[in-house]
Design brief:
Elements lengths: L11 H26 L3 H28 L10 E2 L1 H23 L5 H24 L1 E2 L2 E5 L1 H25 L2 H24 L1 E5 L12 H31 L6 H5 L33
Antiparallel strand pairs: 1-2, 3-4
Helix pairs in contact: 1-2, 1-5, 1-6, 2-3, 2-4, 2-6, 2-7, 3-4, 4-5, 4-6, 5-6
């Protein structure tokens, strides 16, 4: 068995990896909570797509490869197959997204939370082992089945608990707590899965290791992360702006024949409030 290092740079990799997992989870769970509050299917779906990208793409995929920069096999070069590396990103976003769509739509109940947790946890696990299938070393990679099972349990349990906090408990404390739990689940699954790894080296000189060097992945992963997070942030701001100014967010105002209240200056020194007034069945009334 080959010697394997998982913390080549000490505590830097796991700490940075957890921060990425936490931030990605927090953004994704906020989007999930917004989706459940949305009143239209199109808006709900938009929030859930953003949640899938931030959790699957940032909290899971980006965390994984940030942690993998600390992975080293002293007796063999380490390379990555580009096809499976990209495929692992797609797997993460699609599978995690499936779980989020289950809990983000319809009535919140135990069955939906459990199914959503299973799918989201399965997405975390599938991403990890697809990403590990992209690893190339001068030997054969094997896994301890018991630790693989433990890593799966960590991912599913953590994902289910996080979704339960967001869907059943609600509120900012619940969302932050859910992000904390989901970040732990993603990192815990990763390092438990890495502990399951065994490498049997080939005879020296028997095979050549092909693929991308880890150093070549730093720039594209950083650029992809920046573009993804900035794009999600702009999309979220646009979605929130559209919802804030949509008339159907203010049913009471519509019933009274007025549009939504917006903040504006009051010449008498009171809080800024302007109400656009239109006649429906009677004469217009000025602002009170």
């Amino acid at each position: 068995m080959a010697e394997i290092h998982h913390l080549t740079y000490g505590a830097v990799n796991p700490v940075v990896s957890y921060v990425i997992a936490f931030v990605g989870s927090l953004l994704g769970l906020v989007c999930t909570a917004r989706a459940r509050a949305a009143r239209h299917r199109r808006r709900r779906s938009r929030w859930l797509v953003l949640a899938a990208i931030t959790i699957g793409g940032a909290a899971v995929w980006l965390m994984h490869f940030t942690a993998m920069f600390g992975f080293d096999v002293p007796e063999s070069p380490v390379r990555y197959g580009p096809g499976l590396t990209v495929a692992s990103l797609v797997v993460a976003v699609v599978t995690v997204g499936a779980g989020l769509f289950v809990v983000g739509r319809g009535e919140a109940n135990g069955g939906r939370i459990v199914l959503g947790g299973l799918l989201t946890g399965a997405g975390i696990v599938a991403m990890h082992y697809t990403g590990m299938a992209a690893v190339r070393v001068a030997g054969r990679i094997e896994y301890d089945p018991a630790l693989v099972g433990a890593s799966t349990l960590v991912a599913v349990t953590g994902a289910t608990a996080a979704l339960w906090l967001v869907v059943a408990v609600r509120g900012w404390r619940a969302v932050i707590g859910g992000a904390f739990v989901l970040g732990l689940a993603v990192c815990g699954m990763h390092y438990t899965g890495m502990a399951a790894m065994r490498i049997r080296l080939w005879t020296p000189g028997e095979t050549r290791v092909e693929g991308l060097s880890p150093s070549l992945l730093i720039v594209p992963i950083t650029v992809l992360a920046a573009v993804t997070l900035i794009g999600v942030a702009f999309s979220a701001l646009q979605a929130m702006t559209e919802e804030e100014f949509a008339d159907d967010r203010w049913p009471a105002s519509r019933a009274a024949g007025r549009s939504a209240p917006m903040e504006a200056a009051d010449p008498h020194g009171r809080p800024w409030t302007v109400r656009a007034v239109r006649a429906i069945d009677g004469p217009q009334r000025g602002p009170m």
